[in-house]
């Protein structure tokens, strides 16, 4: 339940409206001009090439998946499914921003594929270190 609440909170903050998503019946916003819907195995996103960012990310997280505990190493990768190419890790060097995952690895530790997908740079939004480490930590601690 905690992981589902976290997904709803993250989704609600990232999106202009809350999305419902399921494998059987995706209820996703319509694709807009200059956006590309990218369907990974464990989440779907809408990528906006002009900003090199996702405008939204949606996924279903079951109770069983939320209890996943696979170990992982941070390894950011360009997204092979973004037709125009996603951001690169070099885009973050010397900017004062760090990569913040929209579909967080903490929710994806049930599968090696899900962990790998969570580090695609299409699943990243630039964040200031203090926001990522302290503000998100406080929000997650409340859930």
Brief sketch in words of this structure:
The chain is 27% helix and 17% strand. With 143 residues, it is of the alpha+beta class.
Average pLDDT rating: 82
Return residue spans where pLDDT drops below 50 for at least 5 consecutive residues. 1-5, 7-25
The largest beta-sheet arranges its strands as 1-2-3
- What is the approximate shape? globular
SSE inventory with pairings:
Layout: H1 2-14, E1 35-39, E2 44-48, E3 53-58, H2 63-66, E4 98-101, H3 112-118, E5 124-127, H4 129-142
Antiparallel strand pairs: 1-2, 2-3, 4-5
Structure description:
By secondary structure, the chain is α+β, with helices and mostly antiparallel strands. 27% of the residues lie in helices and 17% in strands. It has 4 helices and 5 strands; from the N terminus they run αβββαβαβα. The strands form 2 sheets. The chain has a 3-stranded antiparallel beta sheet with strand order 1-2-3. The protein has a two-stranded antiparallel sheet with strand order 4-5. The longest helix is centred in the C-terminal third of the chain and has 14 residues. It is globular, with a radius of gyration of 14 Å. The protein starts with a helix and ends with a helix.
Sum up the structure in keywords.
alpha+beta, 143 residues, three-stranded antiparallel beta sheet, two-stranded antiparallel ribbon, 5 strands
């Amino acid at each position: 339940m905690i992981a589902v609440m976290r997904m709803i909170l993250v989704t609600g903050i990232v999106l202009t409206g809350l999305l419902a998503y399921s494998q059987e019946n995706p209820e996703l916003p319509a694709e807009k001009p200059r956006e590309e819907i990218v369907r990974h195995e464990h989440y779907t996103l809408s990528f906006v090439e002009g900003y090199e960012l996702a405008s939204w990310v949606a996924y279903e997280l079951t109770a069983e998946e939320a209890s996943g505990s696979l170990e992982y190493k941070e390894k950011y990768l360009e997204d092979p499914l973004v037709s125009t190419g996603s951001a690169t890790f070099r885009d973050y060097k010397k900017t004062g921003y760090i990569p913040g995952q929209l579909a967080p690895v903490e929710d994806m530790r049930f599968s090696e594929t899900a962990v790998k997908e969570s580090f695609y740079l299409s699943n990243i939004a630039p964040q200031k270190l203090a926001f990522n480490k302290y503000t998100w930590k406080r929000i997650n601690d409340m859930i």
